[in-house]
Structures are given as C-alpha cells and as structure tokens.
3-oxoacyl-[acyl-carrier-protein] reductase
Amino acid sequence: MRKALITGASRGIGRAIALRLAREGFALAIHYGKNREKAEEVAEEARRLGSPLVAVLGANLLEAEAASALVHQAAEALGGLDTLVNNAGITRDTLLVRMKDEDWEAVLEANLSSAFRTTREAVKLMMKARFGRIVNIASVVGLLGNPGQANYVASKAGLIGFTRAVAKEYAARGITVNAVAPGFIETEMTEGLPEEVKKAYLAQIPAGRFGKPEEVAEVVAFLVSEAAGYVNGQTICVDGGLAPH
Ligand code: NAP
C-alpha cells in the first residue's frame, strides 16, 4: 500500500491531488492549516473513492517545528511514508516598494522553508526504504516572473532550484523529486483577483481558458507513480501553453 502526505489538502489543488491519489488506492495524510472541517470532508470523499486509510492532520506551516513534526505524525498514522506532495502555499501580493518584511518572510516560510523541512524529514524515512516520491507544487511565475509578486515568485523559483538539488542528492536511493508548475488554476487563491487582472491573464494563455485543479492532480499522480521512476529533477508546467520552453 502506497502512503502519501499532501500538504494544504483541505481545498483547491491539494484537495484534487488527495482525491486523485485516493482513486489510486493510496493511504493518505490530509494536511490542513485552519480548515479542519473542509479537510474532514476531503477525507470522507477520499475514503469513498477507495483510500484504505485516511488521517487528517493540522499544522501551521509558518512554524518550523510544526512542519518537521507533521511528516513524523503522518508516517505514524499511516505506518510509513513513501510520497510527499508539498502543495500548501500563500500569496501576499504587492509591489516591491510597498512590501513589508513580514510579507516577504511569511511567503518564503510557507512556500519554501516549510517544504525544506517536510522534505528533509521525509527523505530520512524514504532513504531507509530506498524508495520515495516527492512533488513540489511551484508555479509558472517562478519561471516567468510576475509584477506584484516578488516574494511569491522568489519562493517558487527557490522551490524549483531546491527540487533540482535534492533530486540529484537522492537519485541513487530510489527517491525522485520533481516540481509541477501550474499556470492560472481556478481555486480560492485566484478567485479573489480583480476581473481586469483575470482578463489580462486569460489573454496570454494559448489554451484560451484557466486550468482546473484536477488537471494539476493528473500530472502529480503520474510523477508519484512507480512508472515515473526515471523522471527526476524536472519542472512540469500545467499552464495551457503559457510558459515558454
Ligand atoms: P488555496 O486554494 O489557497 O489553498 C491553499 C492551501 O494551503 C489550503 O489547504 C491551506 O490550508 C494551506 N495553507 C495555507 N497557508 C498555510 C499555513 N500557514 N499552514 C498550513 N497550511 C496552509 O491554494 P491553491 O490555489 O489550491 O494552491 C495550491 C498550491 O498551488 C500553492 O502552493 C500555490 O502557490 C500553487 N499554485 C496555485 C495556482 C493557482 O492558480 N491557483 C497557480 C500556481 C501555483 P487551510 O485552508 O486549511 O488553512
């Protein structure tokens, strides 16, 4: 039985990943920050879709110790851990000249440092088993840049670099580490953007539409599969053709 921890699985992309892996029969640790009720609903649906074992775990990833402890709690609840999806993330958008230190620090902490901590603990467990799958949810803006998001872009570009480094460090131990870079995906994170901003994004997307969380989950499901063992250190864009390559 495969065993996965998905951070930020109470809604949006994390929820879709949890439900997709439930259909594959994974045992799941569904992590949430504040929305316990929503995480319980995801757990209920995951059980219905075929997950044999589901744990719901809360942790504020802005707290260093909570992020490290989360991995061990997940492994304890599931009887091991072979898959980690670092999905939780936040934005605090503003122009650089108005960006406060706390806006910078919170975004770097939630999006990058927490992934460093969970990955460090997960790799220790995966090394013993000589098998592991780690997927980091980055963003196309980590490749392209985006005005008003210096903190967010830096965190996602950092996550892509972190992915490449750790992939090389543990490739010989049967552990793969890849990133998925979504474009504009319809979730609560993007719901609140002003209409004119959404229109401007849409005009740039070759597919002519925004993406769905399930479309990101599909790529994650492949990357965590045993079949993807020779795909390592990559960043796969799920963006309707937005990012140039
Ligand atoms: P979302 O709907 O805003 O959900 C964010 C998730 O992260 C929630 O489950 C939330 O938990 C959790 N979270 C946030 N802060 C946390 C904290 N301090 N401690 C613990 N958990 C925390 O976001 P989304 O759109 O699904 O995005 C998921 C990932 O994809 C993020 O990394 C985001 O940067 C990335 N992404 C999204 C898009 C997009 O267009 N939506 C594009 C590119 C990349 P609670 O609700 O329980 O607090």
